[in-house]
Amino acid sequence: TRNDRMKYQKIQGVTAEKVGAAEEDDLVVYDANTELVHILNSTAAEIFELVDQESKTLDEIIVCLLDKYNVTADEIRNDVQEILDELVNKGLIGHQNAEKAVNSQV
Predict the structure, then answer these.
(1) Do residues 7 and 56 make contact, with C-beta atoms less than 8 angstroms apart?
(2) Which residues does 95 contact at the CB level (< 8 Å), separation at least 6?
(3) Which is the most buried residue in 62, 81, 102, 105, by most CB within 10 A?
(4) What does the pLDDT look like over 29-57, one tens digit per residue?
(5) What are residue 58's DSSP bridge partners?
(6) Rounded CA gap, 90 and 12, in Å?
(7) What's the rounded Cα separation, in Å, for the pair 62 and 52?
(8) Residue 58 to residue 6: CA distance in whole angstroms
(9) In whole angstroms, what is the distance from residue 38 CA to residue 28 CA?
(10) Got the DSSP string for 2-56?
(11) DSSP of 91-103
(12) Number of neighbours of residue 62 by Cβ within 10 angstroms
């Protein structure tokens, strides 16, 4: 069972830089911990940047996206959760307070 109050945050050692043109910007993310480069599409990039600014819960991320995409929370909840799960699996973001445990394994 997911904890709806769980916050996501960027993992220390992960840096990002925009590439591409205008509104379809991809985000190149470098993970110094693994020395891997990841390319995020514009939607994943936007979610990554939201948690890069400050740790946020799933609901807080959804609220940030609602006005821009003119959708309801229910319409985007699963998509946002899938992107968050993928970013966690790639080691680009983690759960708040989990960062120390991740870094100690590197």
Answers:
(1) yes
(2) 6, 7, 8, 9, 88
(3) 62
(4) 999 989 999 999 988 999 999 998 889 99
(5) none
(6) 13
(7) 15
(8) 8
(9) 6
(10) --TT-EEEEPTTEEEEEESSGGG-EEEEEETTTTEEEEE-HHHHHHHHHHHHS-E
(11) TSEEETT-HHHHH
(12) 21
CA 23 to chain CA centroid, Å, is 18
Of 4, 49, 5, 29, whose CA–CA distance to 90 is shortest?
Answer: 29
pLDDT bucket at 101, cuts 50 / 70 / 90: very low
Q: What's the pLDDT at 1?
A: 38
> Are the C-beta atoms of residues 2 and 82 closer than 8 Å to each other?
no
Give the CA angle between residues 42, 97, 91 to the nearest 5°.
40
